[in-house]
Every structure is written in structure tokens, then in C-alpha cells.
Hints:
The structure holds 3 protein chains of 3 kinds.
Chain A: H1 3-7, H2 11-36, H3 39-52, H4 57-60, E1 71-73, E2 78-80, H5 113-116, H6 119-122, H7 131-135, H8 152-158, H9 167-178, H10 201-206, E3 207-208, H11 213-224, H12 238-244, H13 250-260, E4 268-273, E5 276-281, H14 291-294, H15 297-305, H16 307-310, H17 323-336, H18 354-366, H19 410-419, E6 432-433, H20 437-448, H21 457-460, H22 475-484, E7 491-492, E8 495-496, H23 506-509, H24 512-520, H25 540-553, H26 571-584, E9 592-593, E10 596-597, H27 607-610, H28 613-621, H29 623-626, H30 639-650, H31 658-671
Antiparallel strand pairs in A: 1-2, 3-6, 4-5, 7-8, 9-10
Chain B: H1 2-14, H2 16-22, H3 30-38, E1 49-51, H4 52-55, H5 57-60, H6 63-82, H7 91-101, H8 106-133, H9 142-164, H10 169-182, H11 189-197, H12 204-235
Chain C: E1 39-41, H1 42-67, H2 92-100, H3 103-120, H4 133-151, H5 159-164, H6 168-189
Helix pairs in contact in C: 2-3, 2-6, 4-6
Amino acid sequence: MPAEEMSKLTGRTRLIFAASSVVFLVVLAISPFKDFRREWKQYKRSYLRFAQGRADTKKLLADYHPDIDQIWLPEMNVVDRCTTCHQGMTQASLADRAVPRAFRAHPPIPHNVRDWGCTVCHRGQGPATEVAEAHESTLAWEQPILPTRFIQASCGTCHYADLPETPQLTRGRELLAELNCQGCHRLPGIERSAMLGPDLTNIGTKVKFRLSETELRGLSGYLSIQKAQAVVPYKIDARVVGVWSNNPELISQGELRFRQMFCSTCHSLAVTRAGEIKLIGGDIGPELTKVGSKVNPDWLIAWLRDPQDYLSHTRMPRYGWSDEDLYKVTQYITTKLTDSDLLTGVPQLGQPTEQEIQLGHRLFLEKGCASCHSIQGLNPQKDFGPDLSALGGKNASDLEFGVAKIPHNLVAYIQAKLQDPTSVNAAARMPQYNWNQSDLDAITTALLSMKGPPATSALENLVVPSKKAVFHPMGAFGEVYERYKCYTCHKFNGYGGDLAPDLTYEGSRAQRGWLVEFLKNPQTLRPTLILRMPQFNMTDKEAATLADYMVMVLQHPAANPARIDAKQFTPAMVALGKQLYEVKYQCQACHTIGGTGGYVGPNLNNAGGWLTAAWIEAWLRNPHALVPNTIEPRRNFTEDEVRALTAYLMTLRQSISPQKTASTNARHVATQGSGR
Amino acid sequence: MAATLHSALQNLRETKVWKSIFRRGPANTNRTRSIAVFGNLFLHWLPVKVREKSLRVRASYYLGSISFILFIVLFVTGILLMFYYHPAVPHAYRDMKDLQFVVANGIFLRNLHRLAAHLMVFAVFWHMFHVFYRGGYKPPHEFNWVVGVVLLLVTLFLSYTGYLLPWDQLAFWAVTVGTNIISAMPVVGNKTRFLLLGGNIVGENALLRFYVLHVVILPLLAFLLIGIHFWRVQKDGGLTARSKGDDGKE
Amino acid sequence: MEKNKIETGFSSDAKKEARRVVFVTKKTSAKVVGDPGPQLMTYPHLLIREAMAFQLLVIAMVLVALFWDAPLEQLANPLLTPNPAKAPWYFLGLQELLHFFPPFVAGILIPTLVVVLITVIILLAFLAVFHAWTIFAPTALVAALLLFSYTVREGQKGWLNVLATKSLSWWVMTWFIAVAVCLTVVGTFFRGPGWSWVWPWRTHAG
């Protein structure tokens, strides 16, 4: 081969090399071009165009720059680049719906976006600058944007205390407590409810277990032999029985007493109205429509006399029944509150066999019954259900979806599990609840809020603790307080029920004499309400104990008796007060005195016999200092006006007469419980 | 136009600077071309001449070259990636996110590096099999075969140490599974694993050790061995020749 | 060129290069290896080919890298073990072996032997691999080919003849590749939770 040829490249080789060189350079230029077309850069440019097309361009572009925006909160481990695209977040003028969604302003919230970032509440991937990566669940990030209907869950992550702005979250937490979810699951911040016990009436309507015939026999057999504490039958005075047993009025008199005792404050009865079955009454205790078919009369009498003897943590108060009342009411319950159809079709079970009892015992533990229903000598299994304290922060890959045909994300998992526990895990032991959609969403929200303990001490500082106040005073008051279970309906220092007025500052508000009178005879004040304070038949001593304690202890610092002296009131002041009330401030627009006036505020007919002068005075100065959420407006009364109005109101007295006050009181309690 | 360019180039070649760098005229004769090859640091381990048959694609599929090219691509992209990477927990993972979301062309660099790494493992394997079937391990190439086997192990180890660096689940568990095998070694198994991981678990120490291995020790070793490998290819007489009628029968 | 087999195409003072002319083994008689053919200058022939190889390879890789993102999963979490946890693909063959053999055999002995084997190309005794079918199947295939090719008479035309003339080391290497490919493919595509057998087209729901 000649030397020349050896070193000469063919034309084809040169051509291929030239072509590949060109392609090489072109291909290397693609990536920078692609980089220029990145999503966030397009959003930047499009916001620029958008802002330039509006009148307030200057304001909208005040802090515009073409780079990535980020909110960096190192102590919270937050790097949020959301505002790179969502540039109108803090521009109030972009709030309307015509603005493209990406640029729309955030609705006003108590927090500042600059201080907290976006992902703290909305989840999603903060560092991402691509739409899909930031919002959706990806291989590298399984915390997608939280659907807005569960956004209250994010409030609950830090605010362990209930917030007025988050009703859904609060409802969810209530449901968790009410259904005693923490009986099986670890749920931080949810108090173990007192509604655990042998009461299965409600659970039967709410819960469905998949039990076979044999399992049913076993369980009922096992439960039927639980007689650790024999009921001691109470012998009702023979004379009472003699008088009443043949009286045709017995049952109707029993019903009357049942109503007069206001059992319906806590217990409901099913009533058929216009073809629809409705429950009338409270839901603190179980529904009693068919209770006569369930309980045996000896037990009923014993229970009514002292419920706390049978079940120490019951919320039912101990009434001072007379034998006569006891007889009439138990006769009424066992005769009228029954359902003859209830037990038809139910097989008669004989004495349970040893085998059935064994099975029942095993099932009782295995199905988790013992977590809610205590049986003496039987300890509930610890951590029966999974720990849910960090459920809200779980990734989809941490969860078992089984064969369920649902989207693989946390929200779908929680909802599927709640609706049908076996859908995601065939071996689930959790009972199936019947939820309506709003309860389902509420409980999902509450569960989503549980993201476990804060990861760092910096985050711990953000937690707003829930009030764990428990109000169980000692001494003579404590005894009476426990006996009548005041806290079932009333709140004391944030502890207790919501049914009746908050009594935290009752000692400042009401006069001792009025308190004693009311405790002994509560229904005379508000007789037409369905839910109201029952007739406890308190003794004088008990009423005095309660009233003394309240006057001594349940005091509000703002109501200062030293500041006002009723003895200094002069008729002139009273006259001035009356004039102020009727003419200058037109108080009768809301309040009633002597049958005339509005129904928004409480009736003041007996203000002088009921309220303390100190309370009225403090109230007139600033009602919100006493009851923060009262609807009473704060007026800027002068010092003299306050005194004059107080003097006038203290003259209003009325001997207790139910007929006149009935309707007005009914109205105000129904509309505005706290501001009496 | 072409003439002007040509004369401009000619003038450039006449300059003192050019001559001080290249010390030769245009490579337009076989002699100057030979000087161009063995006078250049980067080309001197190539032979001056190659058999025409060896240049054919089917002779080698350029697998050795491809492996080396991939190594160079890895070297370049790797150095660029090092600008954005901290071998620490959890910065390493955050840096992956930043490469994806913030750094200009960051994800492209990472893609390229990863793709080249996998291809290199593949190319090196294929290269070895191909050389074997062509009888490339036979005398006088035995030593170079052994060097090649060591290079294969270095390649695997390079790829494996790089696998941990993103510090994601994929990386963590792949390395955990891999290093658990080491403890099965009798007597020294656990010690070796401890040495490699800098601890008993795959943690921050392991990340640092893998990083140092990945960016310093193994690339240096690879460069050294590649140098030897290339050198020996030339010194052992180029690619194994196969003449017509030679179908592998020896 | 016809005159001189080792004509370099250069002036006569060119360095003569070492080259194998004859290869003698026990079985064969001395035989002149065929003409190695003409030679070309490295500059520019080899260099331009290397440059083209470089460009084409980079073009291909860039095109793939532009549109195929490297996977990134969640932050490493020692408490959350994926099932199955897989090693990089080139170690999945080993992981497949681990499924059948104790860690020492699969993780240490066999890889070491393989490295030694491909280093010195020596034959090793067969291991008891009958229940490890991913090894056994390709082994059996290669062995069948080996036996089959030996049973046919030499001199036959076609691929059987080609097979019959392969050396033992050729067979060992082929066996190794067959087993390695089989193990790697099975480990990559056909293994699911608990290292159980899964079909790659039957992905998990969602």
C-alpha cells in the first residue's frame, strides 16, 4: 500500500465525521435550551406578562426578580420554593377568582406566609420547582398536597388545644374521644372517655362485627355468666307498693315523674312523629326506648338508687329518690319502655356450655371488647390496635393497601379503613362503623393532624398545648359534686360538659341565696326546656355546701365586690339608671323586664335577686372580660352611668314564678347559653 | 474563504507560540504523523500504525474505546457534580433535590453521569467477553487480561460506591444488602465491613468513605490501570489478529 | 506488499513490530497464521474513528439523559426496609445466588472463584446446583450443547462443527456468561417481595 493511501481518509469518513461533529454540538445545546424552558421560568415570565397587563403593575412587580424565590426556615427544616410560581400569594389585589389560580392571593389567615412557609400546612414538596413534583405524590416524596377539605388537620398539628376556627378538627377529636378509639389505639391528646362500661345499647346500632352463629353463642354465653357482684334487691316500702300497685294511674304517674325528673336531659326516647322516628332528649346517657326489655327490675331499682355503686365512673348522678318515685318510675320503665318484637326470632339459649364460655372469653379479648367494656379480673390487652400517634405523617409506602382498589395515598387509606376496615386488611379486628360523610371527614382530619411528636426542640416550641385541666375538688364540695356529677353538663375551669352554662365564675355572678334556691328547685326557673337541670332532691345541707364553695372559690378577678357597695345606692341613682336603661341605651331592645323587651339577652326581671352587684358592675364595664365570646356589646359607660345602672338593676326583684319567666328563659338558653 | 482560512492556519503554525507547544509542522507526511502520535503525551501510548483489519468495527466494536470514553464522560460530569455535592447526611439527599430543582442542567448532569456509569459496567463486561471470544487473553496478552480483570473489579467498585452517594432509599438498601454479604467472609468478614463502612451500619461514615473511594482512590487507580492497559495493548502488538480462515480455531 | 509480509509501508528503517507468526499447541502442527493484512497510520485513521466513537456515544447518551431521569427515591431510612431490597443490577446475579446458597458460598466463595476463574481460566468442579435452577438451567443448556457437539462426528459442516472445535476454556466462559446472564435477568425482572417469583408484567395495583 502506498504511503499516501495509508494516511488518506476517504471522503465518506470525512463526511461522517463532519456530520457527527455538527450533531454533537447541536445535541449539547439541547440541555441549556431545555433549562431555559423549565416550568418555573415559564411561570416567572407568565407572571411578568400578567402583571404588566394590569393597572397595578408596579405594586405587583415590586419584589419581582427572575430567579427562584424561597422561604427558608432552618429551625423548622422548611425550604419552600412555592412562591417561585405562586407569586401573587401576598398581593391583596389578586384575591378575586378571575386571577389565574397559580397567581391568586392566599385567603387571609392568622399566620404570615413569610413566617411559616406553605408546606407546613399544605404539605407537598417544598423544594420542588416542578408542578407535578411539588404537588403530587412521587417516588421521592409521598406527602402530596393535602386536599383543602382536610386543611384543618394542619392546624391541629401544632394547636393541640381546640380552636374556634377549626370546627371540623374539633368534631373529629370529639368523635375519637366519644367512640373511645383510644381504648385500642394510641392517640395522643385524646382523653380516655368515661363512656366505657357494660353499656352496649348504642354500640349495637353503630358497630357491626362479623360474627358467626357459634361465635355469637359463645360471646353471649360468656357475658351471661358475668355475675361477680350480685345485685342486692332493694325492698321498696310495702306501704308504697300497697297504695300504688293497683292504682290505674300508676304508669301515667310514673311517666309524669320520669318527665319531671328531667331524665330526658341525658337520655332520649324514640318518638314516632309524622311517620318518622325521632330521638327526643339528650345523648349523654343511653337511649332508653327499649330499656325495659333489656334490664331486670331488681337491677334497675338498684341502679337508679346508686348508679355509682354499680359503675364507679358513670356520669349518672345519684338522685335522692323517694320510695314512691322509685316505684312509679321503675314500673313505668319496665312496662312502657319495652319492645315486644325485639326478642322474637332470637333463639332461646340454654345454659352456656363450658366450650361456649371458653370461646366467648377468647372472642371477648380477641375482638377487643375488653378495650371498652371492663370485666372484673379481665385486663384489656395493651396496645390492642396500632399506634396512630404518627399516622398523619405516614407515607403511602408505610401503609398496607392489600388488594383494595383505591388510590395509594394516605387520605384514601384512612377513609377506606374507617369505612370498611377489612377492605385494606382482611384480618383487621377493628369494628365497622357507620359514618356519615361529614363525620368521616372530621375524623380523617383529626387523624391527619396526628403527625407524631415534633422532630426537634425548635418545633416543640410551636406546639400550643391542649388544656388538660381536670376539675375534681376535694372535701365536702367534692363529694356533692361527684354525687351529682355536675361536670357532666357544666364546665369548671375548662373541664366538663357543654350542655349547661359554664360555672367557672358562678360565685361572682350569682348571689348565694339564689344559688341555694335554684339547686334545691331547679325546674321552677325554666320548666319548658327539654334539656335542663334535673330535680336532684338535694338536701339543704348539700345545696348550702355547693353554694358556699361556689361563692368562695368560683370567683372572677374582674368582678370586685369591694368596688361597689349596695348601701350607697340612692333612689336618684336608681331613677337615673332606669332612665339610662329605657331611654339613653335602649336596653329593652334585647332584655326583658316585666314582660316587655327583647329576647336576645337574658330576662332581667329578677336581676336584683339573682346577680351580684359586683358582677353587674364589672359586666357593664366590659362584658368580654367576664365572658369572652358573649354577644353583649361593650359600651363606654361613664363611672356614674355604671353605678346608676347597677343600682337600678339591683332593685329588680321578683318572687320566683314559673309562668312568667318561662318563655323568655327558654329563648335565651336556647340561643345564647353563656351570657345569662 | 477556504484558502484564507488555510493560510491563516498556516501563519498560526509558523508562530513561535505554536511551535513551542507542538514542535512540529503540519502532520501531512507519515513521518510528521508518527511524530504527532508518539510526541504527544495523550497519544503516545497508541501505536504509530494500526492494522487495517483492527480498525474494522467488527474487530472490536470499539468496546475498549467506548469503555474509556465513558470513563472520560464520567470523569468530567463527576467533577461538575462534585461542585454541588456534600458527602454528609442529610445534605447529600438535599443536594440531589437541588440538582433536580435548582441547578441549571443539574438533572441532566446527574442523568448523564448515571447513564454513563451503568453503560460503563456493561461495556466493560462486554469488552471482556468479546476479548475472550477473540482469544485476546492468550500469549502474549496474559498480563493485560489480568489487568483487565482488575479494571473490571475497579469499575464495579466505582459504580457501587457511587450508588450510595444520593443517599436515598434505593442507595441505602442496595449498599446495605451488598455490604452484608461481606460479613459472610470467614474470620475477617466483619472487620472488613467495618473498615469499609467506618462503622457497623451504613451511616454518615460509610457515606464519607464511599465518597472518598468514589472520587479519589478508585479513579486514580483506574487511571493508572487504564494507562498500563493501553500501554500493554501497544507493547503486546495491538489487537489480536485474525486472518481470513481463522475462525477462532487455535 | 505481496513481497514482504511485514512490509510497514514506511521507509526500511522503520521499526519492525513483534507479531505472532506461528502458534504451536500439542494438538496442532505448526501452522502459519494468515496474513494480518495492510496497515494504516494511527493519525488520522484511528484517531478520527475514536473521535467519531466519542461523538456518537455522547450524542446517544445525551439524548437518553435528556428525557430519562435518574431515579431518586425517598431519603434513606434505616427503619423502613423495602421489600425486596435490591442491589445494583450487576450484583443481582449474586443476590439470586444468595437465595439458594448460604451467604458465604454465594457472596464470597462463588464470586472469588469466578474472579479467579476468569483470571486464570481454569475449570472448576461442578457444584451441587440442582435445586438452584437459575444456575442449573443455563448450565444444563451449555452442557447439552457441549455433549451434543462432541457426539457428532468431526468434519461436519455448520455450527455443530464450530461447537465441536471449541476449547474447554471457551466452554467454561460460555457457561459462566450463560449463568451470569440468567441469574442477572431473573434477579432484575422476576423477583418480588420475599425474593419470590413475579412476572414483570404483573405490576402491583396502583
